Amino acid sequence: MSESIAVVKRPLITPFNVIAGLILLAGAGAGLYRFAVGLAPSTNLDHLNPWGLWIGFDVMTGVALAAGGFTISSAVYLFGLKEYQPLVRPALLTGFLGYFLVVVGLLVDLGQPWRLPYPFVVQSGPTSALFEIALCVALYLTVLFVEFTPAAFEWLGWKRWRRLVHRLTIALTIFGLILSTMHQSTLGAMYLITPSRLHPLWYSSHIPVHFFVSAVIAGLSMVIFESALSHRVFADQVEVTHEKLDEMTIGLAKAACVALGIYLAIKVVSISLDNEWALLLTPYGHWYLFEIGGFVVLPMIGYAIGFRERRTTIIRVSAVIAVVGIVLNRLNVSIFAYNWQLPAHERYWPHPFEIIVTVALVTFGVVMFKWIAGRMPILHEHPEYRGEH
Amino acid sequence: MSLRMAVWISAGLVLLVAAQVGCQRPAARAAREVGPGVMVLRMPKELGKMRRPPVTFDHDKHTAQVTGGCKTCHLVDRAGSLLPKFMRVTDGQSAGKLMDFYHKRCVGCHKRRGEGARSCGQCHAKGPRTRSRWRGIHLDYSLHARHVLAQKKKCADCHHVLDKKLQKLVYKKGAEESCGVCHAGRTVGRRLSLRSAAHGACISCHLRKKGGGHTAGPLDCAGCHSAERQVKIRRLKSPPRLLRGQKDRLWIKAAGGKALRVPFDHQRHEMTASRCSTCHHKSLASCNSCHDSKGAKKGGGVPPAQAHHASASAQSCVGCHRRATLQSDCAGCHHVIKAQASRRSCAFCHRGPKPGEPLPDIASAARIQAPLPVFSKAFPERVTLRSLARDYAPSVMPHGRIVQKLHGLAGKSRLAARFHGGVAALCAGCHHHAKSGTLPAPCSSCHTRRGDATRDRPALLSALHRQCIGCHQQMGLKKWLGCESCHKKAVGRRAPGGKP
Amino acid sequence: MSVSRRGFLGGAGAVAGVVAGSATARAGGGAERFVGYPDAMGLLHDTTLCVGCRTCELACAKVNGKPKPAGPLHDVSIFNKLRRVTDKLYTVVNRYVKARGKKPPVYRKHQCMHCQEPCCASVCFVKAFTKTPEGPVLYDPSVCVGCRYCVNVCPYYALGYEYDNAINPTVQRCTMCYSRIKKGEQPGCAEACPMGAIVFGKRKDLIKLARQRIAKFPDRYVDEIFGEHEYGGTSWLTLAGVSFDKLGLPVNASHKPLPELTAGFLSVVPLVITIYPGLLLGFYAWTRRKERLTEEARVAAVAQARAADGEVAATKAAEQKKLAESRQKRAVDLAVKKALADAEKAAAAKEDTP
């Protein structure tokens, strides 16, 4: 048990706990219902729209938002940006919990989730993008778990295990970056085979690159947002000063701004190569311009102003907008701009149970983060291992 | 610092938006329908390009509004015909002067009246795509006859030819042609285009007549060129025959041709068309005068054989006969018969002597030969199709009624009667390989239960259904009311499909 | 932090080998073309012959053990809405163009097209779909995990999924009556169609047949056989008298098979596995080198500073010593002078007294 930081006895009945508890209960109920009666009564999925909110948000968006893990750990360990060291553990924890929830969400959505290991043990279809994603996500979840264990070992006091795992840091970081590059881009590559069903503005033969760059954006923005939130919620245990946090935020904003700029450039190039300018004047085109203008260009400008003027509030607001933009982009690709030619009565809208399960999963992630970060040395350094990172 | 950066970024965005707007392709929108009087006024190509969009001008609207009549805008030539151009004879040499000419008069009039477009963009508007309801009009026998009566048979009032020596328009009896024979394409020198000539001649005459207190044809565009008003034009029930020295019956042969001569009843054929130019599509000369065996240019390079036999053409013999088979009375059988004429039907027309032999009396040769044969008592009245009956009761086909109906339809049309002279021809629609004089083979002798995909020969079930349903569909008979309308379900039902 | 290089390389190599081995891409770099199995069967659907009697739907339901299609077959009001293929309705006949005057309405039967290069087979990560040499694309429900990627990507919306089955939901679609074909029979719909609007035969023969029909009746057909080349070609060919986009089929579809789009990307994956480790280790080594150089420079600067301090101290000491020595010397000189002066004074005083 940690000795130096006194664990404050927190009461169990707090507003947050009560609300979270209710949501989790509702989610569990909906999940049980889904498994009891099948997908038909518990979702709005049909033969034209087989992928709904669970794939569109839980899987596709979840993986993007959990990308902070590989971005920060690569920055610190591979590119030597040591000043961001305090952000590594929270980012890795967010990543681990995020990927864990992706898998849970996937299990809820699959028709026969107990068969999930089949591609590896029964028969594999390596021509499928999904095969590569499954493999990479399985491996990456393991990597993230292993990268998270030093904090747990420190908390448990298992010194030898902690030392052993710590030695693997570089290897794990490199492996994590390889895996992340592959599966973040392959999530986009899943849609390469659907030029007739995905709207041409969102479809491009460069979709994998779009998805990878937007994952980097999502990762950086999530770290900015989550670090600001943790700094406030866990103010009693964070060791990073406001000034240091602001410095790191400003540095991340610079990187995220460049990433958004690259993303915008890639998007413009894709439209130009496919000569889709005329499509921007259609209703879907307006929606696309809204997504790009409001959620790519705007945060890019916000980040730029923020790091130039050294104003962290603008940066944090831009981070939230950027994260919402990535969510919007993933939902557009998987739901709103998908099957765009079908008439309105054949389009998809999530069933309330789907929404409940999704919200419950996100809440579960937040609750787990709070529990772990409140006990293990995530937001602070363990006194015995100070400096050993 | 940040303001400058914001300005740069905004400028970049504006550029992006501008590029996107500039590169737009206008989305394809449904075209707007406009009346027949709407025309587009453009600068003549020889004078140059317009800087603003061409003007969409509603002629009928102006005709209705203008109080002074046609002469308000159109000059009149020495003969009294209206000139087609607006207030002038020629376009001149200068685009700028022509533009000012129009502007002064159009906008000037609008200003004087206090209504109508006055600013540039109101006339020179880039509007949506339009589709005009304009329909061409022909002088068919009826309309021509009405004009003949109105002019008291004075052909010279409309028909003229150019006397090259005198360089004058004179009337030559026996050389009357359709206007379009000379007045074709665009105006070249003093030879007006059909549009200018027709409008000048027709409308001027109508104007004169109206001025003289007689009833006359329309003066507005829609009067001749809209479908609704065309339908309202009074038709003579049996207009007198147009005589221009044509023979009633004649032998057709191609110069140097080897085929048997064809007896041709010109008088009867006149009645199948609504005007001469249906067949005499360029001039009233005979086909062979342009379509000679060398493929002359004036015949469009079409040799005589093609001119008479091309099945896709509207003017050739075979082509016109084929179009006749597309009517619903005939389409039941004919829609499965391929487009090209079959060899057997040559003899129906080529019944005359060989070239070089003496010509018999045309009147007797052109007469329709034996009428349609009375159908034999051997023809079954009813045919029960029971070989495939399993889920449905055997189907009883009213064979006699069908034969009688076809006989009646064929008899109604002289063309059909001519070509369905033999039993085989009339029955070939269903008994398509039957030889005359023999009992037709049963369908199943060729149409097996399985069918033959390599020969495109349907299975027996498909062949029977396609024959019946196809014929009904093409002839517009009996609405589809489900399988039971032709054969009731069998007792002890079994769903279709499964082992044969 | 130290990492055992051997350990890292060994581990990375093993994993890379596994991943690379499983993520195989199309061989040949695209120089070859697969034109389909030579004796594959197909079906030709002539929509100018279809009268919308829906006997094919009934036959299909009977052969596959599915519930009968809706409504009495002759009730044409069912055509007022476009129906879709579902898990219980493998094939569906829709009316795409209403009757206009004398022209009859245009119907088309829709079902799985049994593509030559099926998207469903390409995207299934348990390889549940197989394109058989006989023509049909078959589905193996015993390995299906239920991810529904296939249902999501089919360009013809031809797959259904058993959403209401909680225990063992599977994909449901037309199978081209594979078991019947193997026995030498025709698919149920082809056999049942009373108008012969569906012809079953070898795909290459059906293409010839379709071309013959178009040549024989050029006014009746659009001069194109749908399915000959679209997205690599399908086993189900369609002839029509109206343009295919009016019949709910994609016009101007690329002739390139859609799975090639994924294969092109997946061929890049092994490159990531081979290039990244070296590249990232390089970054790491570069970062370390930078750190090491900075550290060395720092140590050198400290030492130099220290040494500089030492020199200064020595100079100072020497100066101090010189100063002390000169002070001492002066003191001695002064003392000597004083002593001499005193001696003189004493000598002088002695001389004065007798």
| Proportion of helical residues of chain A | over 70%
The computed structural class of chain C is mainly alpha
Mind summarizing the main beta sheet of chain C?
3 strands, mixed
Question: Gap between N and C termini of chain C, in Å?
Answer: 101 Å
CATH architecture call of the largest domain in chain C = 2-Layer Sandwich
Strand content of chain A: under 5%
End-to-end CA span of chain A? 20 Å
Computed Rg of chain C: 47 Å
Q: How many domains, in number, for the residues of chain A?
A: 2
Radius of gyration of chain A: 21 Å
Main sheet of chain A, how many strands, which sense, barrel? none
Shape estimate of chain A: globular
Structural class of chain A: mainly alpha
Describe what this molecule looks like in 3D:
- The complex is a heterotrimer of chains A (389), B (500) and C (354).
- Chain A is mostly helical and 389 residues long.
- Chain A contains 14 helices and no strands.
- Chain A has 2 domains: 187 residues, no CATH class; 144 residues.
- In chain A, helix 5 packs antiparallel against helix 14, helix 9 crosses helix 10 and helix 11 packs antiparallel against helix 12.
- The model of chain A has no long low-confidence stretch (mean pLDDT 92).
- Chain B is mainly alpha-helical and 500 residues long.
- Chain B is built from 19 helices and 12 strands.
- Chain C is rod-shaped, with a radius of gyration of 47 Å.
- In chain C, a hairpin with a 5-residue loop joins strand 4 and strand 5.
- In chain C, helix 1 packs antiparallel against helix 9.
- Chain C has 9 helices and 9 strands.
- Chain C folds into 2 domains: 236 residues, Alpha-Beta Plaits, CATH 3.30.70; 87 residues.
- The longest helix of chain C is centred in the last third of the chain and has 84 residues.
- Chains in contact: A-B, A-C, B-C.
Chain-wise SSE layout:
The complex is a heterotrimer of chains A (389), B (500) and C (354).
Chain A: H1 15-37, H2 39-42, H3 53-65, H4 68-78, H5 85-109, H6 118-121, H7 129-156, H8 159-167, H9 169-189, H10 207-233, H11 242-273, H12 283-309, H13 312-336, H14 352-375
Chain B: H1 2-22, E1 32-34, E2 38-41, E3 55-58, H2 59-65, E4 74-76, E5 82-86, H3 95-113, H4 120-123, E6 130-132, H5 141-150, E7 161-163, E8 168-170, H6 194-211, H7 221-225, H8 227-232, E9 249-252, E10 262-265, H9 266-270, H10 287-290, H11 304-309, H12 317-324, H13 328-334, H14 346-349, H15 362-366, E11 383-385, E12 395-397, H16 399-412, H17 414-419, H18 423-427, H19 460-475
Helix pairs in contact in B: 13-19
Chain C: H1 5-22, E1 41-46, H2 55-64, E2 92-97, E3 106-110, H3 119-123, E4 129-131, E5 137-139, H4 149-153, E6 160-161, E7 171-172, H5 178-182, H6 188-192, E8 198-202, H7 203-216, E9 236-239, H8 259-266, H9 269-352
Parallel strand pairs in C: 1-9
Antiparallel strand pairs in C: 1-8, 2-3, 4-5, 6-7
Helix pairs in contact in C: 1-9
